[in-house]
Design brief:
mainly alpha, about 0% strand, rod-shaped
């Protein structure tokens, strides 16, 4: 498209220059050149005397035929207007219209590109915001899971400690009960054995009349037999 526009502009400028040169040449051409054939058909030149008089006249004619560049010329103006109008038509058809269309397409393309860029930027910002939101949710979820795990660990530890304390207290109570039971059984055994010994001694005392030495000896034997009976029973 740019090459075509350059070619069209170049052709228009060349054509304009050629037409202006032609118009200027036509406008500056002296009228004597057009009357040359009539001069050749005229009779022979007059006498030398008249020729001498004609030289000043020719010099004056040549002076009058020289054009003034600042003087307005109708022919040149007409050709200039015609060339300008032709150039306007050519440029309007082959240069300006394609140039305007190309600029319009370029503007639409740039606008479309800007819209696409803006849309891509908005999409990227939306994706970034979504990513940040997901990361924040993941952090909150991980923090919540860690907190729940800590709470569960603390609860489990507290439960285990309480269970151990309960079991220890139960074992202590059981041991105390067993000790009390064993002590009660031992005391009951001792009292039973003591009663048996006392009954035996009383029976022996009642069975025969003993002296003081015999009664003392029997009591000593009964006292010595108490530990032996308790040890054998245990």
């Amino acid at each position: 498209m740019l090459r075509f526009l350059k070619s069209a502009l170049g052709s228009g400028l060349v054509a304009t220059a050629a037409l202006l040169a032609t118009a200027r040449a036509v406008a500056e051409e002296p009228p004597a050149a057009h009357a040359a054939p009539a001069t050749h058909a005229a009779p022979a030149a007059p006498a030398p005397a008249h020729a001498d008089a004609a030289h000043p006249a020719e010099g004056g004619a040549h002076g009058e035929a020289k054009a003034n560049p600042m003087e307005p010329q109708a022919g040149l103006a007409i050709w200039t207007v015609a060339v300008f109008a032709f150039l306007l038509v050519v440029l309007g058809k082959y240069a300006w219209k394609p140039l305007v269309e190309a600029l319009h397409h370029r503007e639409e393309h740039l606008e479309h590109t800007l819209l696409q860029t803006e849309k891509a930027r908005n999409d990227a910002e939306a994706l970034l915001a979504e990513h940040r939101r997901l990361m924040a949710e993941a952090d909150d979820r991980a923090r919540d899971l860690l907190y729940q795990a800590q709470r569960k660990a603390e609860a489990r530890s507290t439960e285990l400690i309480r269970q151990a304390q309960t079991e220890a207290e139960a074992a202590r109570d059981r041991a105390q009960r067993e000790i009390a039971t064993a002590r009660d059984q031992a005391l009951a055994e001792i009292w039973t054995r003591t009663a048996d010994v006392a009954v035996s001694v009383a029976g022996k005392v009642l069975a025969k009349d003993l002296g003081d030495d015999d009664r003392r000896r029997l009591l000593d034997d009964a006292i010595r037999s108490l530990p032996e009976s308790g040890g054998a029973k245990a």
